[in-house]
Structure formats: C-alpha cells, structure tokens
Amino acid sequence: MFKYPMLLVRDRSGNHEERLNINDAQNTFQDAWVLNQSMEISFTARLLPQYEQAFNLLQVQNYVIYGGQRYIIQQAVPAIDNGILTNQVKAVHVMYEALKNIRKEDINAGTLTYTFQSACNAFVADNDQGVQIDFTGDFQKVQIENLGNSSFLDFLTSYLDKFGAAMIPDNLMIHFCSRDTFRHDTGNMFVYGGNTDAVHLSFDSTSLINQCWCYGKPVDTDNSDSSNDATKGKYLVKFIWNNQSSIQKYGLQRGAAVSDERFTDQASMQSYMDSNMQTEPTIQLTMQYLSRTNIARGDGWFLRVPGMGLEREVTITGITKNPYNPATLPTITLDNTAAALKSISLTLNNRVNKHDKSLTDLKAVANGLRNAENHFVGLRTIDGGVSSVSYQPDA
User: Fold this and answer.
1) What value does the mean pLDDT take over residues 362-389?
2) How far is it, in rounded angstroms, from Cα 384 to Cα 367?
3) Which residue(s) pair with 285 in the sheet?
4) pLDDT band, very low/low/confident/very high, at 196 (cuts 50, 70, 90)
5) If DSSP codes are grouped into helix, strand and coil, which group holds residue 17?
6) In the prediction, which pLDDT does 391 show?
7) What is the 8-class DSSP label of residue 15?
8) How far is residue 7's CA from residue 21's CA, in Å, rounded to a whole number?
9) Which pLDDT does position 314 carry in this prediction?
10) What pLDDT, on the 0 to 100 scale, is given for residue 143?
11) What are phi and psi of 371, to 5 degrees?
C-alpha cells in the first residue's frame, strides 16, 4: 500500500494546525532539494468546504509540516481558477531562516587559516535560534580574510564547497559531513538502453576558468614585530596557474585567486589546480528515467552511456519529486566536482573526435563505391517519466 508523508499547516505561534488536502498535493506538490543550495516545497491548494481552516492558515511565515520537517511559507499567491479560490504556496526549510538570523557582527581581522569546525563555531556559539551542529569526517582547512560581518547562511554559501563539506538539515539540527562520508555506494546503475532510452546534452561555459593566481603556505612571521619585515605578505608558493589547452580552445577566462596553505612547493599546487579547476564547459544531461528504484541523497550510482562513451561513478546531489503521486518519477542531479566535469568533458571530446574520424573514413568508402546505403538501427522506446541529470561547478 502506498503511504503518503504527513502534510500539515501550522500557524506561527503553534496554536493551530490542520491537515492539508492530499488530492491537491497529488497534482501540484513538488519537493526540491539541492545539496548545499536549497531545500523547499511548493504546491497549490484549493478552498474546499472540508479544508477551509487549513486553507486559511496558508499565509506567509506560517509553517508547513512535511515528512517531519518544518518549512516556512515565503510565497503565497491566491487566485481564482474555474470559480474555485486557490493558493499557490512556496515554503523553504526552517533551517534557512535560522541561518540567516545567526550573525557574526565582529570581525576576525586579517587572513587566517580555519578548520571547518572552528569557523562554524565562531557563528553558532550561544546563538539564539536554537541551531545545533555536528560534524562527520575530515575537512580541508581554508584561509579566510576578515571572517565576520555576515550571516551564517552567507558564510556557508561561500565556503561549504571550499571546505569540502555537505550540509544535511534536520529541522534546526544541522549535520555537516565530508564529501566522502556523504556518498554511500548503492551498486545501482543508470544505463542507456536499460532504465533510460533518451539522453540529451547541453554545454555551458559561464563558470569556465583557465587562469588565476595561486598562493600556497604563507611565510611565517609570528616571531617578527616589525611592520616592515620583508617576509610579510609573502608566500612559499606564489604563481599564475593557467591551462594553455583550455585558453586555446575557449579564450582567456581568468578566475579569483586560490589560496591553500597545504602547499609548500609549486609542483604540488600546480598538479592540484590541473586536477580540480573547471577548464571545460559544464555539461547538462537530460534523460528519460524509467526505473522506480528508490533514490536518496548521497546515493552512489554508476552512469553508463555507451553511445557517448560515458562510464563513471556519480553521486546524487539533488532530487525533485512528488511523493504524493506514484505515477511521477523524480528529477535527479548528479555530483558537480571539477574533477568529474573534466573527466566527462575529456571523454566526450575523445568520443566526438573518434566519431569524426569514422565519418571521414565512411565518406571515403562511399566515394570509392559511388553507391552508398545508409542503415539506421531501429530503436525501441519505452514510455516513462522525464528526469534531469545536471553537472555544475563548485561554487
């Protein structure tokens, strides 16, 4: 038997709570989560006699309770539809409002190196929003200039990816985990011709970077009292990184400087930059996903598209679904690390070059024979829902 998640509306004070109409949810509900970016729901409710009190509670800043999580209504759009009053609602997870209200007004002057735990604790210590945090895994250290004068939300938006962290909200409890602990292998596979019968590609060069300044470990000045010390503002590693192949193909695309005190020699930092920077356009894969296998955050799948030469492990970092309608299939987003993008881009480029060579050889044969025949293999399609698999760069 299909079991629906609980769907309620509650006033801001918590004194009134009503059940919402599941029939409305079956047609309009959308649960959209993207790792480290957003967690929101939306739906359209109708004013019907048995749900009048629930409908009246659908006002901005009231709560929607869905799947045991609290969401705050931020948009409400009443309208008349075929003589029935409707209200189109969008609600954002309660954690995002709390993070916006947690601020660090004072500033830690200077460019300092922080662990992820120390930087987060600088914001949440003694906060008045009831937010609690915990950590799982090992995180990178990051240099931050003048930490403070911002909200916790602004800080996390800017630095989650730089620390290599994944944020999993549970009402006002936030679980931070490293990217390797976020991923859990399922042994499942996306396969063209199996659980998908149509794959489409699009490319975007908006965030492409092929040149920037690099700064490694700063020269130690802790024992110097002179403001004129020759070592101040100096680094053991300082150079301009560039990817000449990308520059030749796409033109010069400069990015912000990269600072990482882990590096004390240029060769190591050069290798790191070559492996992690986005020097190729981003790729968006849209496909018809035909399976009803359960999909969860952090699931590790294997992507196999033989026609495009794509074979690699991927991680689910975004899900859009309607759990109130079993006929709909989810839209999913896969991991967006720079290394994954580079690997996929190179694979596709090699595949295209090989395909071009094959076409040239075929044309030569056709011209020699003066009588060519085109053969097209018939494709059997299977009706199913439409899903989207997106690759995007780290912020």
Assistant:
1) 40
2) 42
3) 201, 389
4) low
5) strand
6) 35
7) S
8) 8
9) 80
10) 83
11) -155, 90
Alpha helices in the chain (DSSP H): 22-28, 52-56, 94-101, 116-124, 152-163, 179-182, 244-250, 266-276, 338-369
| Residue 392 CA from chain centroid, whole number | 7
- Checking 358-363 for CB contacts under 8 A at 24+ apart, the result is none
Q: Convert the pLDDT of each residue in 329-350 to its tens digit.
A: 788 777 755 455 555 555 666 6
Q: CA–CA separation, 373 vs 376, rounded Å?
A: 10
Q: Quick one: tokens of 387?
A: 């899903």
Q: Output the CA–CA distances (angstroms, integers) from residue 98 to 133, 154, 367, in the order listed.
A: 12, 12, 70
CB atoms within 10 A of CB 32: 16
Phi-psi region of 309 (alpha: psi -120 to 50; beta: other; left: phi over 0): left
Question: Residues near 300 by Cβ (< 8 Å), separated by ≥ 6?
Answer: 183, 184, 185, 186, 313, 314, 315, 316
Q: What letter represents residue 263's amino acid?
A: F
C-alpha 232, offset from chain centre = 38
Q: What mean pLDDT is reported for the chain?
A: 81
Tokens 């290798």 belong to residue: 271
CA 37 to chain centre: 6
Give the CA distances from residue 56 to residues 47, 72, 86, 167, 201, in Å, rounded to whole numbers and listed in that order: 8, 15, 11, 34, 44
Q: Are 12 and 63 in contact (CB under 8 A)?
A: yes
Distances (CA, A) of 330 to 18, 64, 91, 150, 388: 28, 22, 19, 35, 9
Which residue, among 278, 341, 283, has the nearest Cα to 312 in the 3D structure? 341
CA distance 196 to 265: 46
Give pLDDT, residue 385.
38
> Is residue 90 predicted with pLDDT exceeding 90?
yes
Highest mean pLDDT among 115-119, 198-202, 380-384: 115-119
Q: Sign of dihedral through CA atoms 269, 274, 275, 276?
A: positive
| pLDDT (mean) for 15-42 | 95
Fill in the DSSP letter of residue 4: P
Alpha-carbon span 212 to 254, nearest angstrom: 6
H helix or E strand, kind and range, residue 111: strand 103-114
Asked whether 140 and 272 are in contact (CB, 8 A), the reply is: no
Residue 303, strand partner residues? 190, 312
